[in-house]
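ok here's Methionine synthase:
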Amino acid sequence: MTQILTTHAGSLPRSPELIEANAARPVGEDGLTPEPTDEFRRVLRQAVADVVAKQEQIGISIPNDGEYGHLMGSAVNYGSWWSYIFDRVNGLELTGADIFSTEPVRSEPGNVRLTTFPDRRDWTIFAEAYQDPTSGITVGSQPNFPAATGAIAYSETGRQLVQQDITNFRSALDASGYDSGFLAALSPGSGSRIVDDHYGDEDSFLDAWVEVMRPEYEAIAAAGLTVQIDDPSIAENWDQVNPEPSVEDYVAFTRKRVDAVNRALVNVPTEQTRFHLCWGSWHGPHTTDIEFRHIAGLLLEIDAKFYSFEAANVRHEHEWTVWENTELPEGKVIVPGIVSHATNVVEHPELVAQRIERFARLVGPERVIASTDCGLGGRIHPQIAWAKLESLVAGAEIASGRL
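and the structure:
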């Protein structure tokens, strides 16, 4: 019998103690980096140990640290996967003009440019629903995004923080009997979506983010852990281009971001790399998401062994059929979302098994790891998040027996 392994996309619910300890840290002079305290470090270390132990108790095959080092100051937070990096990079400054407050940008054929977040096509089509607090749409609280006002570089603080993540996680893995796991890190393309007030050239700014992120990837890999590159921008950017571009123009625009990931990973073994793609984790209609068939080829151009992508929510579940006509290269593994972050309904283990079997029959059961669509932490209630992971494990057991 082939045992279907289980994992998740990264973010797990933070404990109240960790959220409180983070919120209590005094903010540094730059306004971006809260000062660490011995008490905060103690709470963080214990929280990582607890969340890894809980994954082992449930039966998750490939754990992480819950992204607890990507700090959240509130229980609801959709953006810590991105905003954590601001504490780790020199050259950033809070200027008052961020991705939510700048003026909308219009693209033209052959010239794809990202507009502002409020100008997203899905957000404007459903403006009435997005502005209605009773609609059920949530985008999470938004941090104050900095701008690049000088040359950016991975800071000494960044090196200390990633080593803190590694040390805490390694200790927790040993205590829970795991051999290894993964740590998530931002992609260069996603990093480059903040306001650039220094480089003045999109390609130069993207190149700078390649150099920024490389030390973090290499530090994680050097510790014997798998690096997960979080890059929803590969798919999500489509909705942030106004008016809608041609697929050809968008693919050309996106291929630069794929190349940036590969250049940043140049010194990381492919076997220690997985890539996470999603269409954005906010709870909204998502009617303007690009179809997976248009970007599946781009996904496979990324130099990773494992490819994580949304496949469980109602906007994208039907796209499992992409793998009928897309050849998965030798030695590669898909990590499809089997339970979703976008609903409070806990998937039945039988549905989980059926979803897993669809992929297993197309690419082989040994090349499928069952996962979540996106991170669960900060997006659904902790009790529901853990119930979903329990169902994921139960469904994988059913599928393993049948396959």
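+1. The chain has one domain: 5-402.
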